[in-house]
Write a structure and sequence with these properties.
2 domains, 3-stranded mixed beta sheet, alpha+beta, homodimer, 172 residues, DNA-binding, 6 helices, flat, Arc Repressor Mutant, subunit A, Dna Ligase, domain 1
Chain lengths: 172, 172
DNA sequence: CAATACATGAGAATGGATTTCATTTTCAAT
DNA sequence: ATTGAAAATGAAATCCATTCTCATGTATTG
């Protein structure tokens, strides 16, 4: 593997004597707490996952990391994402036939509202729905452990576009 | 293809002069209304899909049909299931990395409560949750077209089992 | 019955995810 | 710092559900 890269990731401590910039929880700690060995690959992945956009695929992570550390492999990304998912650091959402989407789970719980036309994703949370879900589970004697609520529709912008299209067709 | 099978499926009309047993909507009509040619494969698939268990995979359908008409292919099952899904006769649910589950959609809308341990699926419907979903979509200006709500938990039986296990371990 | 547009089956291809395995790296004990 | 055992890695092979391809077969129209 190419170890020559002088790059040092922002939130990964280079020495053991901490005191870098704030850095919430250092990646090293997270990895150690999982009982795993600290490797540059895992630090890289963590860095990307925590600082990147809200939703990403394994491919996204791979492509971002590979720019810095060209010798990382798919397998490592998938493996570690899986580990993070199992440990609930990351939420994995697999819908449709498309690649799994992940997100760093430290933020508040939320569900998704996705636009069928443009793919835009809006996050929302609704206490009342959550409560009702609990209620439903309880009614059947289930202990609720998780849920997936994904709403699909057409966003305001795309609705507008569709109206314009229809107008155009009518005046043809 | 082997056309020698004397088997005639229960709900598929052999002649054009109807009057078989009740048979809600004849399969032929459904297929014709879709603008497709009526083939024995499609009739077979429809028959299985409509008379079988609530939830099934493409594989399930294939395996059931293949017993009667050994020369059917995967492709045909997948193709027709896709068609039925597009036409909203069938609902396709793809969760996790597992094969897609399908169900005949003519029944009332419902969501699912799945047991993590034994895989049991309970169907439920909750008007209030549906209403709230609409409300959420509206708040963001979306026109809601569909949703996926899947609850996961541990069913009563499996909860019981887990308690027993824990007891056993404690007394070791 | 012929013409033809559509449907089918077999197998190849796809694509995301996982596994395998030889090699490399981490890290605790020197 | 050195070392050795266990763990982690990358590359490639593999898996598996699903889709595609295409030569052949079949339903439907007239």
């Amino acid at each position: 593997m190419d170890k020559s890269s002088p790059l040092q990731l922002p939130t990964s401590n280079s020495g053991t004597t901490g005191r870098t910039r704030k850095a919430s929880v250092p990646g090293k700690k997270i990895i150690r707490d999982l009982g795993l060995k600290v490797t540059t690959q895992r630090l890289d992945i963590l860095e990307v996952v925590r600082s990147g956009p809200n939703h990403f695929t394994a491919q996204d992570v791979f492509e971002t990391v590979v720019k810095r550390s060209p010798d990382i492999g798919f397998a490592t990304v998938y493996r570690f994402l899986r580990t993070l998912t199992d440990a609930s650091f990351v939420t994995e959402i697999r819908m449709g036939g498309m690649p799994a989407r992940y997100e760093w789970a430290a933020k508040d719980h939320h569900d998704h509202l996705t636009c069928n036309s443009c793919g835009k994703i809006v996050e929302f949370e609704n206490e009342e729905i959550e409560r009702l879900q609990e209620k439903v589970a309880l009614r059947f004697g289930f202990l609720l452990t998780s849920h997936v609520l994904e709403l699909y529709g057409v966003c305001p912008e795309c609705r507008q576009k569709k109206v314009s299209q229809a107008d155009a067709e009518n005046s043809r």
